[in-house]
Amino acid sequence: xxxxxxxxxxxxxxxxxxxxxxxxxxxxxxxxxxxxxxxxxxxxxxxxxxxxxxxxxxxxxxxxxxxxxxxxxxxxxxxxxxxxxxxxxxxxxxxxxxxxxxxxxxxxxxxxxxxxxxxxxxxxxxxxxxxxxxxxxxxxxxxxxxxxxxxxxxxxxxxxxxxxxxxxxxxxxxxxxxxxxxxxxxxxxxxxxxxxxxxxxxxxxxxxxxxxxxxxxxxxxxxxxxxxxxxxxxxxxxxxxxxxxxxxxxxxxxxxxxxxxxxxxxxxxxxxxxxxxxxxxxxxxxxxxxxxxxxxxxxxxxxxxxxxxxxxxxxxxxxxxxxxxxxxxxxxxxxxxxxxxxxxxxxxxxxxxxxxxxxxxxxxxxxxxxxxxxxxxxxxxxxxxxxxxxxxxxxxxxxxxxxxxxxxxxxxxxxxxxxxxxxxxx
Length: 426
Ligand SMILES: Cc1ncc(COP(=O)(O)O)c(C=O)c1O
Known about the structure:
Elements: H1 8-13, E1 23-24, H2 35-47, H3 57-77, E2 85-88, H4 91-102, E3 111-115, H5 123-132, E4 135-139, E5 142-143, E6 154-155, H6 158-161, E7 169-175, H7 187-201, E8 207-211, H8 223-226, E9 230-234, E10 244-248, H9 250-255, H10 281-286, H11 289-296, H12 303-327, E11 333-336, E12 348-353, H13 361-371, E13 374-375, E14 377-379, H14 384-388, E15 400-404, H15 411-424
Parallel strand pairs: 1-13, 3-4, 3-7, 7-8, 8-9
Antiparallel strand pairs: 2-10, 5-6, 9-10, 11-12, 12-15, 14-15
Helix pairs in contact: 4-5, 11-12, 12-15
């Protein structure tokens, strides 16, 4: 189906700021916004900024625009129905709401499994467990067998998850892609294995929650194919406005979740159940620009094709950067995450500089900041537990240097990044 490569002129022309020449390499923190998304947000505010649901003409238009935004998010999840999609200010807030809504359906003695990845899909479940007095287990990232010499080459592996499951497991919450390690989790394969094990163990009810925030800018989400119950991502990292989107499988919405809304609202089968108050309507309308943009990247207007092109282009960014960092092993550079490119590697690349002449992550980033036309970042990026449990230990406050690229970055930009690193590591 994919016959051509990504049209980088089309891509970069869609983000006016890129014409400035500034190199955005902190995209896992937030991507640049499509001009079309910004225009739609402004258009909503300037022309249709009224409350939804009334019968007068402007309200009819605003209602339709918001419905179009929810439909756009549905497409990005590949959910069956718009009733499975709710929107809110951030993924963190949506996940916290989800945990609150699930609370009554988690029974005494049941267990929850989380990862050490971004706290958004950990904290709400840990807090829920604390409120209910139930057990939380942490599925830690462990050493990748093909990289035995680098203790920081770790990933989430099924072999370490399966023994954590018991007949009491109620929820497994994991990430679709690590925002530090850059590894894309095989969500479908893992979910299938989790469900099979749960069936053997006679689990009462097992649900799976996927954090797709670091995944969504790079690959196609497919909640139906993955067979997951909950999934969320942040549109502001997928080239749109600052808003988050949550998928809840209809069956879970109906049977597992209590409404967070006013008691008199008719919410039984509606994702509105999880929206205590409206999300920013102009931002919801802005979401419509994202699938439109993705389709424009494909000659067949196919989202699958667009994502395949994006993934292929991103590999041309991943490969040279990883190869360069790996070549600096004797200088003390350690990649934190998978050391090689490939289908399971997003262009989110973290590392530390240790060895005999260590350099703090902060100082590596400062050298980039001094150039003035490039943005990268250091820290734990809220994957606190992951970074804190790396062994040998690294300073949690200094943590890792992260260079996070997306499809609008270019091979030339990667060469610029490598040239700066070359100076820093001299
Ligand atoms: C993997 C991951 N999950 C969750 C979040 C939280 O997203 P939000 O800022 O929308 O709450 C982030 C933000 O950086 C993230 O990288």
